[in-house]
């Protein structure tokens, strides 16, 4: 409950400071530019406050490893306002950069590709970023967690994605990305979370996604995807959440989807799916949600669904089912 501003000279009066942690403290005002003079700093956490203005330059902080400024009101209206990012290219030890949920605007500077080769976490979600993602982002080959969601980014995701071979989590939902889902996802064998929802992707779901054996969450909903759901999706044995809602998918639900026995959530509503509900879904003993509404499914509702004791949300409305409702 520290409703105060940081002293403007904090970086000059504490030159030996190595760690500055004021997360969730109700601080406001500007981040003092003098922090850039505290050259021993390794960790700065000013997250969840009400800081305003531009991010000061930290070009002298050669030992900086973690910079967390998420959930503030920081601004960056044009390329000149991203001077702070240029300065961070000097921080060769930087491993985590959290800038999500601020008021950053404009394009992501090309200098992002000159950040530390040790960078593992880059989170820029919940801002007002626009334009295309610079190809230089592909230089950050150590990235494990990349979050660009909830912005207004455009263009394709090819050209930089295929170089990020260590990615474990990619979240770019709620942007304006377009084009097809590239086959280069096959190179990202360590992916556990993939969210491409609420964009403008089109074309088929590439079967290569079935090779992502570590994938636990796959969200491709609210796009313009077409064609069948590839049966290879059933090879994702670690999958717990599959979201394919609100696209233009057609064809049948893969008969072998029941092989993904860890599935808790299946959302395929608002598509053009046909055929019957596979009885193999009765193998999904952990299934909590099954949403298949607003399709062209037909036949009888499988009685095996009534045996799923964990099922709490079932939506089969607006289809062409016939026969009795299983007890």
UniProtKB/TrEMBL annotation:
GO CC terms: membrane
Localized where? Answer: Cell envelope; Membrane
Asked if the record carries the keyword Disulfide bond, the reply is no
What does the UniProt keyword field contain?
A: Leucine-rich repeat, Membrane, Repeat, Transmembrane, Transmembrane helix
Its placement in the membrane is given as:
Single-pass membrane protein
> Pfam families recorded for this chain?
LRR_1, LRR_8
Under the heading Gene3D superfamilies, the entry gives:
Ribonuclease Inhibitor
InterPro entries listed in its UniProt record? Leu-rich_rpt, Leu-rich_rpt_typical-subtyp, LRR_dom_sf, PGIP
Does the keyword section mention Transmembrane helix? Answer: yes
Protein's name in the database: Leucine-rich repeat-containing N-terminal plant-type domain-containing protein
Species annotation:
Triticum aestivum (Wheat)
